[in-house]
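Re: that backbone. Tokens:
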């Protein structure tokens, strides 16, 4: 479009220029004028060789071939005199010849058209060149990947969710005919090295579609406006090649909260780039089969605008693998290396808690290098040991290694949440419990969203608070200790309790009233004092405290009763690192059988348990 307007602009300029040139040319060739008297004098002096009449105008040609014009008031009377002087006389019609007329129109038009054609074709060539240039510079050319799901291990749930996406990329028509709206954006959240990029590539590989990728951090150091235009370039390229996948790594670099710091020009740039991204994501036609995958390890700082429906409304958590996952990943990476007979991958998997996929990949590679240096034909167990120590040193520096005591505390803490979730009514279904260390930022992302648009029952909220407190309660009941691990749990519990009392009218003393307390940042807090009295504030505090206290007692009570189940669950967690809801149920069955020696049916229906992975 811009190129077209530019061409038009040049065209108009050339037209004007051509007009001016023609005008000057005509003026240049205008003959000098002489007076009629001078003409008569020249005639008398035999200086006139020929004349041409054109109406009353006379063109006089002198002996040197020069032409002059003059005007005669009475041409016919002049003729005898001219003939007498042997002057060649020619008459011309008053109208300029039609050929000249035509040429006068055609030539400028031809000129303009040629100029336009020339310029336009140059412009097109330039555009093409620019595009090629850009592709080279920014690598927006798609890549085809040969990576498939076979290469990604230890993330079974993520894979399961993504199978649908692959089918959609392969047969978009099938879905559009049914009127299905396909997710546009999927956000992978998880710590570095857990295989987010790998998974994105595997989707492209499985579906056999082009893979466009870019990283959010590419924009951080750029001038204002460059990032935005690159986003547009990327989408323009991608649209030429649908169906396809666009992968944006480190999306938090552009999509980070405006408040997340940085210089103001950096903010501008980020804001513009983010806006461009949002505009592009909203601007697809429905027949454009483009799936945008993004990865981040800071979902907590993402601008909420990115997570709105129609954008990255699907989020997939990718956590570091548990024992089983690590074994699978080790198998994938040792497919192409010769393993010695003494190598027991399962053992290695057990001995590498907290390792990510990337770390396991480099474990296998390091081991191969170590074996190679000592000229071995196969990688042996000792090579893995040395390699592990090396990688552990790196991880230790990052502060990701946890000691046995801490693991035990974590196991009881998490088991405490899970046991309560197993017995309390009105809760969310349990997904998975795990004691695999996670990045700090991951902790509270998919937490129960306490937003007004949902409605929760009093019973649900009480259960929720009790489950949250269950971590600390379990530590006390089973280990007789208190640790800092419960801080986030307490914060959430207090938040829910406060809202129950102040906003949702769920407290018998306060009654069905809503006080705008603890709402929205510093302004809200300042205003809070004006909304209710000091006395009310004290009452609210005491009611919140009472609510929490009751829930805590309830938690301790259940955990004391179910101490065998709690211990068994914690032990299994220490062994397996993560348990899903079926496994929890099996452990429960086993402990009750052990205790009573028969099948007992106590407690609510088995699958009504809850525990968010993150508490
Ligand atoms: P992220 O994008 O989450 O930071 P990557 O996808 O870049 O992590 O992972 C880096 C490398 O680690 C991959 O190329 C792969 O070799 C290995 N890797 C990571 N996760 C897995 C996994 N789940 N299965 C197999 N290999 C993995
Ligand atoms: Zn907890």
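Recovered sequence:
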């Amino acid at each position: 479009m811009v190129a077209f307007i530019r061409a038009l602009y040049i065209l108009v300029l050339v037209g004007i220029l051509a007009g001016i040139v023609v005008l000057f040319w005509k003026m240049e060739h205008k003959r000098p004028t002489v007076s009629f008297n001078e003409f008569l004098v020249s005639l008398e002096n035999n200086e006139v060789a020929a004349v041409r009449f054109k109406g009353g105008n006379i063109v006089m040609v002198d002996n040197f071939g020069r032409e002059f014009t003059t005007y005669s008031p009475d041409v016919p009377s002049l003729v005898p005199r001219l003939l007498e002087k042997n002057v060649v006389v020619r008459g011309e019609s008053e109208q300029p010849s039609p050929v000249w007329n035509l040429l006068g129109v055609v030539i400028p038009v031809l000129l303009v058209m040629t100029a336009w054609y020339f310029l336009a074709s140059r412009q097109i060539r330039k555009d093409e060149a620019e595009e090629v240039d850009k592709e080279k510079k920014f690598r927006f050319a798609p890549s085809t990947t040969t990576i498939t799901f076979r290469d990604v291990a230890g993330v079974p749930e993520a894979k399961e969710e993504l199978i649908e996406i692959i089918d959609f990329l392969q047969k978009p028509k099938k879905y559009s005919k049914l009127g299905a709206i396909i997710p546009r954006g999927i956000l992978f959240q998880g710590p570095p090295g857990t295989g987010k990029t790998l998974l994105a590539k595997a989707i492209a590989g499985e579906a056999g579609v082009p893979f466009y990728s870019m990283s959010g951090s590419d924009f951080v150091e750029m001038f204002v406006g460059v990032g935005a235009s690159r986003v547009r370039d990327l989408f323009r390229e991608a649209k030429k090649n649908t169906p396809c996948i666009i992968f944006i790594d480190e999306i938090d670099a552009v999509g980070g909260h405006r408040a997340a710091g940085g210089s103001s020009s950096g903010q501008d740039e980020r804001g513009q780039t983010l806006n461009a991204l949002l505009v592009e994501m909203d601007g697809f036609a429905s027949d454009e089969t483009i799936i945008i995958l993004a990865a981040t390890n800071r979902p907590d700082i993402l601008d909420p605008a990115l997570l709105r429906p129609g954008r990255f409304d699907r989020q997939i958590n990718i956590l570091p693998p548990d024992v089983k996952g690590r074994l699978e990943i080790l198998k994938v990476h040792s497919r192409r290396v010769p393993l010695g007979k003494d190598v027991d991958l399962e053992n290695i998997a057990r001995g590498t808690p907290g390792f990510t996929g990337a770390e396991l990949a480099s474990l296998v590679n390091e081991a191969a290098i170590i074996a190679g240096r000592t000229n071995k034909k196969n990688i042996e167990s000792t090579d893995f040991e040395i390699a592990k120590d090396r990688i552990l040193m790196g991880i230790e520096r990052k502060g990701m290694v946890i000691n046995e005591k801490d693991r035990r505390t974590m196991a009881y803490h998490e088991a405490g949440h899970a046991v309560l979730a197993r017995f309390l009514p009105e809760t969310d279904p349990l997904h998975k419990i795990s004691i695999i260390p996670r990045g700090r930022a991951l902790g509270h992302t998919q937490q129960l969203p306490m937003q007004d648009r949902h409605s929760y029952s009093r019973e649900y909220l009480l259960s929720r608070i009790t489950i949250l407190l269950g971590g600390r309660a379990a530590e006390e009941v089973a280990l007789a200790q208190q640790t800092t691990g419960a801080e986030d749990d307490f914060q959430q519990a207090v938040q829910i309790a406060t809202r129950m009392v102040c906003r949702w009218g769920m407290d018998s003393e306060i009654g069905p009233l809503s006080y705008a307390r603890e709402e929205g940042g510093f302004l809200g807090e300042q205003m809070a004092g004006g909304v209710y009295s000091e006395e009310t504030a004290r009452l609210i505090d005491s009611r919140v405290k009472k609510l929490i206290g009751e829930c805590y007692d309830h938690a301790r009570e259940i955990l004391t009763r179910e101490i065998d189940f709690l211990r068994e669950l914690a032990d299994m967690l220490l062994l397996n690192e993560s348990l899903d809801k079926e496994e929890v149920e099996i452990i429960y069955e086993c402990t009750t059988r052990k205790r009573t020696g028969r099948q007992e049916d106590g407690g609510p229906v088995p699958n009504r348990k809850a525990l968010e992975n993150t508490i």
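Residues 439-453, 519-530, 599-614 have pLDDT under 50 and may be disordered. The chain has three domains: 149-258+266-317, 323-392, 404-614.
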